[in-house]
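Translate sequence into structure tokens.
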Amino acid sequence: MVTGYNAVKAKLEKGKATRKQKPTETAQVVIDSIAKFQQKITTIDMAEWTDADKTNFQVVMENIKAEIDNAIAAMTASVQTPTAATSARKSSSSKKSG
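Result follows.
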């Protein structure tokens, strides 16, 4: 009995040691997933949906939109757009030369 227990315990320990961590998602994986989702929602046929189905779908889509808006706001707060950066450089250059 003890030998069987030790064998099972050893097997479990080995499984823990060789278990791989889930890799973090790269930007490309996230972009591809969102593109796939976008394609999926453009092909939805709601002809046979009930009013309750449509309402539930609308709620979910509004929640997704809110999350997208939050993500965009976070990105624009942390990354200056090229146009804004160019304008800032031009502005500071014209003040120096003037």
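Note: The chain has four helices and no strands.
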